[in-house]
Amino acid sequence: MAEVIKVLVVDDEERFRNTLSKLLTAHGMTVTVADSGQSALEILRREPHDIALLDVKMPGMSGQETLIEMKKIDPDLEVVILTGHASVDIAAEMITHGGSDYLLKPYPMDELLGIIHIAFDRRKTAKG
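^ thats the sequence. predicted structure below, dont judge the formating
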């Protein structure tokens, strides 16, 4: 039986969070949503996740700040950065701080699913 992938969706846009949560759940994943970086960190402190899908631009704590703090909580957490065209440079920089990959919004769902599965396999390998 395949392992269930635990995904944390971090985005300040409620409609986006809810839609993505439904789509990932339909693909057999367990999904938790957070509307801010601070909220995401509180969730990670309570409950480990395999993958975080992290928006770059959010009010309050930025995606960059959130990524750095997430990696302190769980160095093996796979963080996929979701960004609009205006933030591509920031997303690329976030990779140097431990981000796994990044996707430009809007993106094809099959591309996101592929990245999630690759990241999950990488996490399993890292954890031994």
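Residues 11 and 55 are 5 Å apart (CA to CA).
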